[in-house]
Amino acid sequence: MTSLRTLVDRAVAGPDYPPNASDLADVRLAGLAVPIRASVAVLATTAIIVADQLRLFVPGDGGGQGQIAGLESLTIERLVLFLVVPVVIIALAFRDSPARYALRLGDWRWGAALLAAGLVVMTPIILALAQLPEFRAFYGAEAVPLGGRVLNNLAELIPAEFLLRGFLMFALWRRIGPLALVVVQVPFVLTHVGKPDVELWSTFIGGTLFAWLDWRTGSILWSALGHVYVLTLMVVAVGGATL
User: Fold this and answer.
1) Please, which pLDDT band fits residue 60 given cuts at 50, 70 and 90?
2) Which of 29, 34, 61, 243 is most buried, taking the most CB atoms under 10 A from its CB?
3) Cβ contacts of residue 90 below 8 Å, gap of 6+?
């Protein structure tokens, strides 16, 4: 029991993320002391999500069917909006390192171990959900080559994880602490509106676990790989991918 307790304690022993002077800097606006970095992260993330939802930068009808080097146009749009734009903000506006916003390898030993344990639990759940008609209709409407699907999932979901649980969460964490983990669930849940109801409700749990994993490891890589695995397995299970 002592060894098990020690293992659990080590598993949940995440690092501190102490703010520096720039993280704590405010600007006075109409009598209010507004935190600069946290506010920029919230507003920029909101604008990025709105632009994506409106398909402002996707050519044609916004369906994202055109491809460049195997990447769909919608994937390319999200790669730029969700990854390149936040990195530019961090580097040029914040004059900071993206590594402080979890764009790094992090604690890879615990990241890999915790991710593997999570996938063991999630695999049978995904396979069960794949039998529901609403999931088969949503994810299996059009079969695509598996290699292309994996490529697009990687190019889309790694940036998506960075936008919400890297750029936004860690900018907020250094101002409001662990409440940041809760706050980032709001945009994450809302971006799933329109997907099967069960999946929409499950994002409350999945998003929280992904955010916790990013905090624990200091990296968005492990939640991103988990996200890619779950989505790819779902597509394969409903017949939406071909070898």
Assistant:
1) low
2) 34
3) 96, 97, 98, 100, 101, 167
Domain definitions of the chain by residue range: 2-242
232 within 8 A of 139, measured Cβ to Cβ: no
- Residue 234 near residue 130 (C-beta atoms within 8 A): yes
- For residue range 194-239, list pLDDT tens digits in order: 999 999 999 999 999 999 999 999 999 999 999 999 999 999 999 8
At which residue do the structure tokens 């039998």 appear?
A: 131
140 Cβ partners below 8 Å, 6+ apart?
A: 235, 238, 239, 240
Spatial separation of the C-alpha atoms in residues 210 and 157, rounded to whole Å: 12
One-letter amino acid identity for 98?
P
DSSP per-residue codes, 30-53: TTEEEEHHHHHHHHHHHHHHHHHH
User: How much is the average pLDDT of 69-89?
Assistant: 95
